[in-house]
Amino acid sequence: MCLKLKESAILIADSHYPNHKKEQFLELLNAINSNLIDTKQLIFMGDIFDLLVGNSPYLKKRFKKEIALIDNIAKKIEVIYLEGNHDFYLKPLFKYVKVIPLNKQPLNMRLDKKSVALSHGDRYLTPINYKIYTKIIRNPITLKVLPDIIAKYKLKSMQKKVLCKDIKDFKLKVLKLKKHYKSDIIIEGHYHQEAIINNYYAMPSFACNTKIAIVKNGIIEYIKLQDII
């Protein structure tokens, strides 16, 4: 059964919590949890956390409150979490959230009569060394031996990472990306580019400008957090 992209649905990508726009991200979650923002569907498009791995004791403890908050929201409305390259192996963390791993992306949905493909964005057109790295790091065996010290280091190092920059010839990249999809609408995160190129929606990075996507009257719009709270 194909899931429906609902009216008033909120999509958020690449918030890279907690090192970037921490207060605003929590403000969004708390507003949804308290019904200050009226929505029936919340979709995380990946890289919501700077690092969140499901079987890391340190990360599970570090983000215990945030995980509980997201799961509590999922008791009330539909919450879908597309894993990214910074947050994966998440099913053990959530009881009520629908978790979509990379190998199950794109997630195919319907918006009225149109087909919609949602993906974090790092499945196609990635260098071979990146594919090897992500395959290794997502392997359950690798994750079991991931020392907490590495998790702490990675989380801290993300404080200095430059997230917000334009990608040269991004439109040409989009043309190549679209060849991997057959849907009427394509939505991806990962690239931190706010753009709508024909039927391709490059999600803005929440970490860069606190923008999200929202479905209004069957149309996907980008909007700043401050304009809906």
Describe this structure in words.
This protein is of the alpha/beta class and about 230 residues long. It has one domain: Metallo-dependent phosphatases (Purple Acid Phosphatase, chain A, domain 2, 4-Layer Sandwich), CATH 3.60.21.10. It is built from 8 helices and 14 strands. It has a 6-stranded mixed beta sheet with strand order 1-8-9-10-12-11, with helices on one face. It has a 6-stranded mixed beta sheet with strand order 7-5-3-2-13-14. Strands 4-6 form a two-stranded parallel sheet. A hairpin with a 2-residue loop joins β8 and β9 (about 115-120).
Task: List the keywords.
globular, alpha/beta, single chain, six-stranded mixed sheet
SSE order and pairing:
Elements: E1 3-4, E2 10-12, H1 22-33, E3 41-44, E4 52-53, H2 57-62, H3 64-76, E5 78-82, E6 87-88, E7 98-100, E8 107-111, E9 114-119, H4 128-137, H5 140-144, H6 148-157, H7 170-178, E10 185-188, E11 195-197, E12 200-202, H8 206-209, E13 211-216, E14 219-224
Parallel strand pairs: 1-8, 2-3, 3-5, 4-6, 5-7, 9-10, 10-12
Antiparallel strand pairs: 2-13, 8-9, 11-12, 13-14
Rg on CA atoms, Å: 17 Å
Strand content: 15-25%
Strand order of the largest sheet: 1-8-9-10-12-11
Helix content: 25-40%
Short description:
The chain is an alpha/beta fold and 229 residues long. Helices cover 30% and strands 24% of the residues.
